[in-house]
What we know:
CATH topology of the largest domain in chain A: Alpha/beta knot
Strand content of chain A: 15-25%
Oligomer: homodimer
Number of helices of chain A: 10
Largest interface: A-B, 36 and 34 residues
CATH superfamily of the largest domain in chain A: SPOUT methyltransferase, trefoil knot domain
Order of helices and strands of chain A: EHHEHEHEHEEHEHEHEEHEH
Helix content of chain A: 25-40%
Largest sheet of chain A: 6 strands, parallel
CATH architecture of the largest domain in chain A: 3-Layer(aba) Sandwich
Strand order of the largest sheet of chain A: 8-7-6-10-9-11
CATH class of the largest domain in chain A: Alpha Beta
Number of domains of chain A: 2
Amino acid sequence: MSVESITSLQNPRIKNLVRLRDRRPRDKQKVFPVEGFRAIRRALEQRVPILELYYAPDWFLGTNETEVIDRVAASGARLFELSKPVFAKIAYRDRPEGLLAMVDQWETTLSDLKLGTPPFLLVVESIEKPGNLGTILRSADAAGVDAVIVCDPVTDLFNPNVVRSSTGVLFAVDVAVAPSKTVLEWLRERKIRIAATTPHTRNVYTRADLTGPLAIVMGSEQHGLSGTWLDACDQPIRIPMAGQADSLNVAMATLVTLFEAVRQRGTDAY
Amino acid sequence: MSVESITSLQNPRIKNLVRLRDRRPRDKQKVFPVEGFRAIRRALEQRVPILELYYAPDWFLGTNETEVIDRVAASGARLFELSKPVFAKIAYRDRPEGLLAMVDQWETTLSDLKLGTPPFLLVVESIEKPGNLGTILRSADAAGVDAVIVCDPVTDLFNPNVVRSSTGVLFAVDVAVAPSKTVLEWLRERKIRIAATTPHTRNVYTRADLTGPLAIVMGSEQHGLSGTWLDACDQPIRIPMAGQADSLNVAMATLVTLFEAVRQRGTDAY
Lengths: 270, 270
């Protein structure tokens, strides 16, 4: 296998990888960086095409890295071996593992989604923190939703901290990105019932009917759900909370709501 | 109010605050640092005695800081105003807010716990990541448990990242720290039933009886629960999961299990 060596911080590929931490160059080039053993292995498992792999043996934590490199090489990616300081420059983690892949962005359109019978969707509106979006993807995966629909995103799906906090689940869960109004119309056309979470209702989520064709809708960290969703929903729901009002953040509230729906729906996992 | 000014990085108080990032000096001095507006305000709300307050107006994000400083001063703490670079040195956050308090550690003994009728406890064994322990405290607070019992801790309760990720809930939730075997005996004496989470059971958590005197027990990130708990528990329980096996981490699994117990127990929050 052919490997190019990079030892200069001035190398244009290195400069570009640093630039890709920002959304605009990421979206323009239609690629994104994926760092770390677990996330890259998951990309391989999900047959996500890897364009390039950058690695630095000086940072490796174990001995499994070689196998990942071989598999990425076999898939046709270009390989680059980096010196320790050069890798440190492109790494966005505090503790680099010496592996970073460059991956193509993919289309995230509503029309590509495959729905189950009955449909079970998670919709999130304007999530601000990449860490929350990544955790929400993990929860959605564990709950077995058909897809996650990201409305009016503030953070983009291919943000390095979304990839990291999703622990690579980003590659496994179907995701669509669209404006709230488009999604609302799309759900109505398909007769999917909308359960919108808000503190301003007496309707406790465990007493709501979360069976049948369902979209659970969660709002942003700062502002909660917009009027678009609160006015249009079939049922508002809330999670009753003891203790401090802000103990559950949006990612935690999403997890609790999804698993109550799983319980009511009695899916195969049982 | 009397304020001392610190502008030297060599000031012994500054050097000591940096040292307190490590557990040993923290435990020896029986104090811990608490950083940020939200956590310090929560300490005030919970009447936790603050020994010293270090602040740097150059880092303030808003205008609420003055009120917090006044309240801390009124409580009898010593005040220190720091230059921007000196505060940057003691801050452990990426984005300092210019407020850091030094607080006394407190006793965390089993005998101090007050139990509800019936008791509802969360027990965690050997949690490794401070971020997980902090999130678990938030979940426990939201679920309204009587207390969290931390067994054989790997990370200590007063770790700066526990304080941070708990968003100050550490000051609001009753916590005891003790060895697993002591806790097990303590629970048995009180006839509190033990539900131990493990992937190695067919007993789904939503079908288990989580009412009555109950302790939910969660294991460590790497190893799950030890034999001590799995052998002794009244019922093993598991959360069924779709998707990737590791999508739910221990903090997420704790949250899901606690809220199922809350649902079954039908507490006042409903």
